Amino acid sequence: GIADAAAAAQCIVYLAEDGPVDCVKRACVSLGLSTACISLIPTERSALSVDLARTIIGKDAAAGATPLLLIMRAGELVRFLARGAESSEGAPVIDPARSLAPLCRAVQCWLHVHGRAAAALCALRDQ
Question: CA torsion sign, 48 to 51 to 57 to 60?
Fold first, then answer.
């Protein structure tokens, strides 16, 4: 875990509001972080909103917090609501890496790519 409790208390982990929250909670506990450090970023058409991520991370950094990690999705299956009920069908979501990478670089935040299902195909897309 993170040795300095005061430093750990300032760390923030970001992910999409419909991202793998339970998985991230378990990872935070394993690292010695409180699950309260998780900040959910709204999505636009299922993808993580870069503009909202920039605003949220910028405000946190200005307030003295440490943007530790931003988790983007590559091939994560997200279930959509259909007629008021959760659909059994999922669609792969790819968050905008080309926009998120410079954002993370600017605030020295680790960008983690969470890949499931179609992640391998997503990685090969630009080849």
Answer: negative
Secondary structure element (H or E) that encloses residue 16, with its range? strand 11-16
**8 Å CB contact between 41 and 56:** yes
13 vs 31: CA distance, rounded Å: 12
pTM exceeding the 0.85 threshold for the entire prediction: no
Residue 79 to residue 91: CA distance in whole angstroms: 7
The burial class, CB within 10 Å (0-12 / 13-18 / 19+), for 31 is: middle
Q: When comparing pLDDT for 19 and 61, which is higher?
A: 61
CB 72 within 8 A of CB 95: yes
Q: Residue 84: pLDDT above 90?
A: no
> Residue 91: what are its φ and ψ, rounded to 5°?
-125, 140
Q: Are 87 and 45 in contact (CB under 8 A)?
A: no
Q: What are phi and psi of 2, to 5 degrees?
A: -80, 120
CB 74 within 8 A of CB 97: yes
45 φ, ψ (degrees, to nearest 5) = 50, 45
Q: Which tokens belong to 2?
A: 């993170």
